[in-house]
Amino acid sequence: MIKQKTIDEIMETARVEDVVEDFVNLKRRGVNLIGLCPFHNEKTPSFTVSPSKGIYKCFGCGEGGDALKFVMEHEQLSYPEGLRYLANKYGIEIEETEVSDEARAERQHQESLFLVNEFAKQFYQEQMFETDRGKSVALSYFKQRGFREEVIKKFGLGYAPAGKDTFTLTAVQKGYNADLLKQLGLTSQYWRDFFRDRVMFPIHNLSGKVIGFGGRILVKDVKAPKYVNTPETEVYNKSKVLYGAFHAKQAIRKRDECILVEGYTDVISLHQADVKNVVASSGTSLTVGQIGLIKRYTENIKILYDGDKAGVKAALRGLGLVLEQGLNVKIVLLPDGEDPDSYVQSVGTDAFRNYIDQEAKDFIMFQAGLLQEEAAGDPVKLSKLIQEIVESISKIPDPIKRSLYVRECANLMGVDEQLLVNEANKAVEARLRKKEQERQREARQQERARRLQEAPPPSSPKSLPQGPPPPGAGDEPPFPTEEPGGITDLPFEELPPEEMPAPVREKPVGDGFQERDLVRILVTGGDAQFDQEDGLTVAEYLIANVEDVLDEFDNSLYQRVFQIAIEALSEGKAVTPKLFLHHIEDDVQRLAVDLSASPYEYSENWANKWEIFLNTQKMPDENFAKDSLSAMKRFRLRKLNRMIRQNADQLKAVMEKGEGDYMVHLKLDQKLKQLRNELAKELGTVVF
């Protein structure tokens, strides 16, 4: 286990904004930062990072926590793995105590997968730099492409030797598990090297770890494919990976634009030319996962194609998914015979940037112009052209953007704007109808599966009833029908992420509202000063006033928060927000984030721009003493009302049974009501 001293150092050092910005494009808004949530698909930013509080919170899907929680959720890491990630990021040395064999084995398996891939990368590099064949074939190939040695090493390029099992034998001899070699796709089921006589391109995840490889063959006139990639593994899912994303993410965020190319060498060549905001889809159509990866850093994507218009037209058909995800897409057609690699090397960085900036055309307008050339003078082709353009426009989720495209395309093609509006609306309705049908189909399938699971096992032939079936048998269908009350009345699958409502907070019961308010003050301002003269903190004041009734709390989680604070004070620790925000119990941490985060903030413009100041009280975040008094009075008033009701019930029981001293209950009733009325008067509350 990682020692507590190391954990404390990691948590003190890690800055939530630094960690989140490795994965999300954040923009300043007041004292906070905002961006698109990486945990659900959204078009309007609802993801907030508070550097001062050290937390993030999405007000769309409800996810929230500290820097450690973010990397655990985003990278699907365990608690120790998340700590190791942060320790590695900030260069903190980890001190550990002994761990169980089971926990050690689980952790080592995950680490071993990355270690084997890292060994493979180093092996391929050594083969290229230290063997005659590697130098003469692979290294010379990269240098002929114009790649400098420092860039070759930065991207980890290498060479897989031609031997049928050279890599496998070397790895096993060095102690690497043979089964892991198979699991990672480096060795075939027949113990042969998967990559042979190919130049190698390591593929990294966003953390910089090697998760797979691409290999390009060097020998011509063979039947083997030009490129082969690592098969799907525990750590490599090609639909969620973009080549070069690790090296490009900072530049993409900085320039607020992602350049998409086709191949590995295009990425490396552009990166070498200081065009670093570039990634490759590796020759496949973009997937939702890859588009989501880009969208974390920018909503602007620029796609580069060579001069082959026929190939471009075919490629454009696969970009509807990009439009559906709300990205702003521009197309750049490079000069004939040029690809990004060759063109940047022939004209240089500045000329290349100028060209792609000047020649970039909006996707819809580019598609319209390209198809219009093809349909010139042919009404039939023009009709088909309009249908294709309308289909593309209908995929844009923003209705305002859709209407602007309709207007521009109508002007470009010389057709009535209303005609395109009508056709676009039909296409949108058809798409929504199709999605609804798919939801219904899946709901039916889920219901069938549920009923099959709940159905009793079939009877054996010996137990089957003899003779005619009983009356009514077979009258009821085995599964729901489309009639009212059937499957169509069942709830469909949950809304798509972009349509998800804000998370619904559990409705407090009993005195839950008042208890939550006290917990809010304790969590967010427990270390604030309540009384300057006595040195009393807010936490000490709250605990002193609720400790005797803590067992009577209606909400067990709120009760647990106060218990944590009491334990901290007994150990001489301060009750700070970090005590709860970094707490190991998930429900405590989640509550602390919910109480600390708010979609609203006090605008600095009130004072800086309008010169309107708070005169009767301190700023909200500094007003804990007054807030504590008010909240405690409301809490005590609530408890007094409860005690009055309980005493009244006891008095009624005494009078009905004729047993007990009812005068005691009468006097207690008077005293409780007196206290209640005084407290209500202080709060300005009317008591009935």
Automatic annotation (TrEMBL):
Its EC number(s): 2.7.7.101
Give a yes or no for keyword Ribonucleoprotein in this entry. Answer: no
One GO cellular component term:
primosome complex
Zinc finger residue extent: CHC2-type: 37-61
Q: Where is this region: Disordered?
A: 432-510
Cross-referenced CDD domains: TOPRIM_DnaG_primases
Q: Which reaction does it catalyse?
A: ssDNA + n NTP = ssDNA/pppN(pN)n-1 hybrid + (n-1) diphosphate
Toprim domain location: 256-337
Per the record, the domain of life is Bacteria
Residue spans of biased composition, Pro residues class = 455-481
Q: What is the uppermost EC class here? A: transferase
What's noted on cofactor binding?
Binds 1 zinc ion per monomer.
Q: Which UniProt keywords apply?
A: DNA replication, DNA-binding, DNA-directed RNA polymerase, Magnesium, Metal-binding, Nucleotidyltransferase, Primosome, Transcription, Transferase, Zinc, Zinc-finger
A Pfam family per the record? DnaB_bind
Q: How does it assemble?
A: Monomer. Interacts with DnaB.
Q: Main role?
A: RNA polymerase that catalyzes the synthesis of short RNA molecules used as primers for DNA polymerase during DNA replication.
Q: Which family does it belong to?
A: Belongs to the DnaG primase family.
Protein name in the entry:
DNA primase
The protein's organism comes out as Phaeodactylibacter xiamenensis
Taxonomic lineage is: Bacteria, Pseudomonadati, Bacteroidota, Saprospiria, Saprospirales
